[in-house]
Amino acid sequence: MADDPIYRKDLKALALTRLREAKVLLANKEFSGSYYLAGYVVECALKAVIAKRTQRHEFPDKGRAVTSWTHNLEKLLGAAELQASLQAESKSKPRFSSNWDVVKDWSEASRYKDWNQREAEDLIRAVSESKHGVLAWLRHHW
């Protein structure tokens, strides 16, 4: 429900659920839906990081609160205060940097475009790769 609170544990679980769903869609040749959900994995994970950084009983900064409700991954990265970590990770791990380059181009508007198998596979790989995937990196922060 729109008015129900969203908890960090729910966002973490949702990220993992969306990844499973994206893989099921990919296996069933539903490439556009697979691509779209794979991007939501990163959105949910970034929002889990933001939730972790929110202190209990803290009155949130208005800008950060408003930005936290976006679907824009770059803005969410900023709200999660992960820019320096992203730069360090990208510099030390070129494979991660390549994966972020794939992921950062996802947007909520992706739902209005047809995506092919290669594009869906590339995004899911960039998100879910066990060592250098974007989700693996975000899990260290959430």
What does this structure look like?
This protein is mainly α and 142 residues long. The chain has 8 helices and no strands. α6 (94-103) crosses α7. The two termini are 23 Å apart.
Write the layout of secondary structure elements.
Layout: H1 8-27, H2 31-53, H3 62-67, H4 73-79, H5 83-92, H6 94-103, H7 117-128, H8 134-139
Helix pairs in contact: 1-2, 1-7, 2-4, 2-7, 5-6, 6-7
CATH architecture: Up-down Bundle
Q: What characterizes the major β-sheet?
A: none
Q: Which structural class do the helices and strands define?
A: mainly alpha
How many helix segments?
Answer: 8
Mean pLDDT score: 92
> How many domains comprise the coordinates?
1
Order of helices and strands: HHHHHHHH
What gross morphology would you assign? globular
Please give the alpha-carbon distance between the first and last residues. 23 Å
Beta-strand residue percentage: under 5%
Low-pLDDT residue spans? none
CATH class: Mainly Alpha
The radius of gyration computed from the alpha-carbon positions, rounded to a whole number of angstroms, is 15 Å
And the CATH topology? Four Helix Bundle (Hemerythrin (Met), subunit A)
Number of strands: 0
DSSP helix fraction: 55-70%
